[in-house]
Amino acid sequence: MNVPCTVISRSVSYAAFLICVLPALCVQSAYGQSSDAPNPEVVQLKKQMAEMQSQMEEMRDQIRTLEEARKPSVRNATFVVPATTDSVSSEAAGGDAGATTAKAGTTATTNAAAQTASTPAQSERSLDIYGFAMLDAGQDFKSIDPNWYDSLRPTKLPSPPGQFGQNGNTYLSIRQTRFGVKGVEPTPWGDLKAQFEFDMYGTGKDAGVTTMRPRHFFGQLGPILAGQTNTTFMDIDVFPNNSLEYWGPNGMVFIRQPMFRVMPIQGDTHLWLALEAPGQSADLGLLSDRIQIQNIKARFPYPDLTGQYRQATSWGYLQLAGAVRNVKLDDTLADQFNLNQSIMGWGLSVSSLMKISKDALHLQYTFGNGIENYMNDAPVDVAPIPNPGNPARPIKGKPLPMWAMVAYLDHAWSDKLATSIGYSQVQIQNTSLQAPTSYHLGQYSTASLTWYPFDRVMYGGEFQWGRRTNLASVSANDYRLQFSFKYTFNGRIIGAK
């Protein structure tokens, strides 16, 4: 341990003084004057010694203070909960899924824990764990793909009608349950931040399974972020605060993927640019049985380029985001056709959070070509179209045009009671070579009532409606009633409160 040199120097000086003074005091005591009158020299020496003893005590206190300040604050036995934290995060899981709720009466959302760029630099080391246990219990009055029994995705509704059997299904699910760890470590270049988070909602090959699913795995040092988190094309604050349904508004931009992000402007007003993992999907449509089509392979020579700019205002914010991507179609079949092609995709999104008294209005409008996989619930990005006048390439791929919107209102009835209500949709411009059962339009709406009896506990109910309309104008509806029970924790195990 390092003790300041001034303290050591003063200690040595006082020790030397005592060595010189104490013998004189002893001699004076043994051979003192016979007179009862006090000796002025003795009085003066005693006074100086009392002052030195007081100063020595002060120096001991300073040394103890310095020693304690250098010890790390580690609490392994008990969670220390920061008093200023009302919830784990405003983030909903969406994109590839999700929902969470904010405390009733809180109408202005904040960026997700994953998007830490606007967090002020911390001056000390810290480690937090957070998450919640959640049960969703509901009644589905219609039917949906069984792998998505506890979420309402219009793309997963039956096409054609009766595809998933009879109507009516009761479900209980804990797949929204979430766990995360995030830490801060000071470095010479600023604070190093890292986050690890997962929920229990299986997707992909694990669709329908209760299993660990990665959400956020990233690190950030200053303006550089690398790892997996919410796409830069996305605005997490569009998600309604008090929604209970896991997947969320279908017309919202929402996906998490690996990326390298640079943030030249940070804070409430910010500018982010990123290179992200590429990926698109295709619908072979009416040509799916053609061997020429089956031998076309997709290749991604470049990462997706994404960016967002957010302007903070006194009433909320306004955000503009964009994405550009490219996919190569390689014809691997040696025949008379040459179906090689390069396809560009692009998208723009405008979003806002408007604070109105104690309420908040979430708005987003997105449009583009071949960006469907960036949406919370949309189908394929590319589909075939006829290419007349070119016998060597009679067909080609087209990035499907689409547009989407979200409009949700958060209303606080009191400090403990709140509602989210709104509507969302995604519409695709199909091609003539897609099947009649291809997805054309998806609509989504919910209305919730949530109650917070005290911090970190939420009970709520929600009515949910979804509708899928196919290219052939055949529709399927779904109606649900869901009740949710959520118990949140957020504890600091290293660092001060």
What is the CATH-assigned architecture of the largest domain? Beta Barrel
What level of helicity do the residues show? 10-25%
**How many separate helices?**
3
Q: What is the makeup of the main sheet?
A: 16 strands, antiparallel, barrel
**CATH fold assignment of the largest domain:** Porin
Quickly count the domains: 2
CATH superfamily of the largest domain: Porin
N to C succession of SSEs: HHEEEEEEEEHEEEEEEEEEEEE
Give the beta-strand count.
Answer: 20
Q: What percentage of the residues does DSSP assign to strands (E)? A: 35-45%
**Measured distance between first and last alpha carbons:** 25 Å
Structural category is: mainly beta
Lateral strand order in the biggest sheet: 1-3-4-5-6-7-8-10-11-12-13-16-17-18-19-20
How does the overall form come out from the CA principal axes?
elongated
- The residue-averaged pLDDT reads 85
CATH class of the largest domain: Mainly Beta
